[in-house]
Amino acid sequence: MTEIGFSLGHSLLTLSMPLCVGLLLSAAMELLLTPKSRMIWQRPLASNLLHLGTWLIVFAAELVLFRRPWFAMGNVLAIQLLIVLVNNAKYHAMREPFLVHDFEYFTDAIRHPRLYLPFFGIANALLALCAFIGVLVAGVMLEPSVFSSAQASAGSYIVSWGIY
Asked: Can you give the pTM of this predicted structure?
């Protein structure tokens, strides 16, 4: 019994640092947005809870997928940075911010990259691709898995059941 309790306490301690650092960096990353958004303490509680909940769900999915908390945090922040960069490119080109309806254009950008790369920039796209591949390789090779196979299988089952 104590081994299970120690394992759970150890897992929570292992997850708490990347979780806190990731949430702080996520809030700080919003300073890169154009046009500038309200500071986090000036927003309604519902807005902050939505940000927190979305970040935690994506972090949990990444954690179940890769079993590496620091790598999961980096992946979530990379996704957020991509959205911030796309927002800034859209605002620079069209003078309007990236909205929830614009997520549909991500699939169009994958299908027809020649239409969207001039706005985003080929250098930005190549830099993002190289950074993602580098972080992927480094994260999988350098950070050990924090869960055993049985724990990860149970977590995968729970997450997949929740999605469907």
From this structure: 0.74
